Amino acid sequence: MAHWLYRLGRFSARRAWLVITAWVVILGLVGGAVAIFMGTTSNDFQIPGTETQQMADKLKADLPDASGGSGTVVFTSTDGKAFTPAQEKDISAALATTTSIPSVKGVVDPFETTATLNASQAKLADGAKALTAGEAQAAAEKAKLDAGATELAASKAQLEDKQKQLVAQKVQAAALPADSPQAQAAASLIAEAQAKIDAGMAQWQAGQDHLVDGKAQYDAGLATLAAKKAELTTGQRSADAAAGLRFVSENGKAAIAQIQFKVSMDAVTPANRTLLQEKLNTLGSKGVTVDYSKEITQDVSALFGISEVLGIAVAAAVLIIMLGTLIAAGLPLLMALVGVGIGVGGTMSLTGVISMSSISPMLALMLGLAVGIDYSLFIVNRHRQQLLAGMDMRESIAKATGTSGNAVLFAGLTVVIALAALSVTGLPFLAILGLAAAATVAIAVLIALTLTPAVLSLIGRRVIPKRTWAKNAAARTSHDAEAAGLSAGETTARDDAKDVARSARGWGGLVTKHPVISLVTAVVALAVIAIPAMGLRLALPDGGSEPVDSSAYKAYTITGNDFGEGMNGPIVVVGSLPAGLDKASATELNLDVADQLRKVHNVKAAIPLTMSSNFRTAVYQVIPAEGPASSSTVQVVHDLRAEGVAIKADHGVSIGLTGQTAANVDVSAKLGSALPPYLAIVVGLSLVLLILVFRSILVPVLATAGFLLSLVAAFGGVVAVYQWGWLGGIFDVPNPAAVLSFLPIILIGVLFGLAMDYQVFIASGMREAFVHGQTARQAVRTGFKHAAPVVTAAAIIMTSVFSGFIFSHLTMVRPLGFALAFGVLTDAFLVRMTIIPAAMHLLGKSAWWIPKWLDRILPDVDVEGARLVSLSETGSAAKHADPEPATAG
């Protein structure tokens, strides 16, 4: 491999303009693709197959009006007092104008909604009074009917008694002679009495008919009252269910409007977001302050911010200090910028056809800048050393590419493996993120191996400052004077002795003189730093993680203070109702389900929102007691799902959860379960690669163990700052909360790759010295001495680049920038430059042990460039030289 890279470097140096032109053309083509095909990025971290996604798809099919995105707008009075009637009208009028925006479907006016709710409450109160009055009237009517019935019964009893008496009289009259005056008189009296009885019976029947009519009217009134009571009960249950949902605060000083969009929030263009804010910001002249939720303000169209530029500026300063000339310092920066231009540009050009999270190009940008600078720096530094040692220009470029370039290739391959392995996690957005970053790193490697040698050929001797040239010439003259009269062997032995003496000084000498103390101290330090990692809690960011002065943070805070933390993260519950229901029964069933949802611990409100036209799908909004990223809300999501079993048994309704809060919980859980297999894959593949590179068993194992130490230390730092709030004022962490849920898996991939970068550069120098004849322990010092300056500079540069993202305009990137910067610092200085040399010094020759059978079957990749030692312009290198004349020099 070293020989092949030597030839590639030599070709690039001889055909400099051809190589440069090729990369310029590629950069231009990528730029054109970005201009033509670039779409928008998103922060929609859905996972296909999860309950959240299934319910979202169900809503889109059954209730398309409820499937669009939404955001909230928070209004407060500038003077801190309650809204005036005029301000309320101004807010309502401004909200009405937003419906003209193409993406906006509708708005929930807080004052109009509150007025409607208040009117409903008043109507319910009036209905309750009317019902009470109706029930009282019905009771009076019932008493009257009962009295009438009693009176009719008594009258009928009297008539029946008289009839009995009359019958007895008829019997007595029948005993008298028929033609006697007594019989005639009795018959007359009997007839008269019978007529009175018949008249009484007729009067009773009329009364009875009137009583039946009254009873029928009473029964009808009673049925009406029952219907009104049922309607009133349903209305009251609905009102009680919505009691926990407010749109205007109790003190009247804050109001929340909801903006419903026709499309998902990620599909709302920056232009429409801006237009919405412009229309509502006019309220500032009316004494109203307007703040927007994160969903509305978030614009992921810009990659660079001021802080990112500052990080690059620090990296440039380090390069200038190290290399001493603007031309040499600018070369690694230029290589990195070309690399990210192609890598990130290619990534952005795919956003028109691939749904991509906003963090994908950001991670590619971070890594592309960091490794792009470092990889070119390693080759430039080797080239400078060789030039100062008297090597020919093109020979130096070729050998620098064959040696340091070999290390760059395998270091980059390790990073690419770690990032590409994100595609096996089963998380689409994470796979795209990893592949985009891996592609950018691969491009950085190609640029370092081709474009860097080409530009070095054009720069020539200007890669080294004139002062350094003069100082080196004086040193070489002094060296030649001292070597006068000595044989070549004696001169080499003397130089080797000096090199050995120099390697015993400095940090490497100190660590190897006291390896046990150094090893134990570094391990204990990393273990202490890692302690907070035991409390690691994962979630996706909410408005509380935004900058304190941002509109999103203010909206989040005001909502939490005036309406309850749960209003910042409502949970959407989707119910599947049984068939055959009418509207009334479906409504009643929905209220029963809402009542049961409300019984779940830490649920503040559960409100039936809407139903499909066939009454088969219902939507409920659940308001938890705390914010979306809190541990209690995560538990509410789990408890609601558990309660679904009882709801199905009691009411025949199947429920599922969706919405951003539930999705965040699902994403975090999925990411947590993907960590162990991902770590196993990355470590396993990289161990194989490192065994191949170093032809050793213990060096790769030691490198991996060191990585695990730096990883848990990085986790500890992240938890301390972003979850516990330590140094929150310095790092702008106003509201410490759970750690970004996909930070651990990204940190594992990226930090492992970068840690192996430094491992390759330091250990390859040690192996190079060992292969070239030094003892194992002395090789540790020699390799460290040659690699430490450039690795130190590279680590500072990489930390500077990552640190620039700690204050990024995209808050989701901030903890990732901190984790990478902190992880690189601890890994470079505590692990690679302390633990590794100390441990390898203790191991001695056994560090390079490998079973003979394995040594025989492994291909020799010659990462230390041992085969290039004997190459020269006139020797074997001439066989591979390009016969055409050089185009640059």
Task: Describe it.
The chain has 889 residues and is α+β, with helices and mostly antiparallel strands. The chain has 27 helices and ten strands. It has helices at residues 2-14, 16-37, 51-62, 85-97, 110-174, 181-241, 270-281, 294-297, 306-323, 326-349, 359-388, 393-420, 428-459, 466-483, 488-503, 506-513, 515-530, 551-563, 583-598, 631-651, 660-694, 698-723, 743-771, 776-803, 814-843, 852-857, 876-880, and strands at residues 70-77, 104-108, 254-261, 288-292, 538-539, 571-576, 603-611, 617-624, 654-658, 739-740. The strands form three sheets. Strands 2-3-1-4 form a four-stranded antiparallel β-sheet, with helices on both faces.
In whole angstroms, how far apart are the ends? 26 Å
Total strand count, please? 10
Radius of gyration: 43 Å
Note poorly predicted spans: 872-889
Discrete helix count: 27
The percent range for strand residues is 5-15%
Strand order of the largest sheet: 2-3-1-4
Principal-axes geometry comes out as elongated
Query: Tell me about the biggest sheet?
Result: 4 strands, antiparallel
What class do helices, strands and sheet pairing give?
Answer: alpha+beta
Mean pLDDT: 83
**Helicity level, as a percent range?**
55-70%
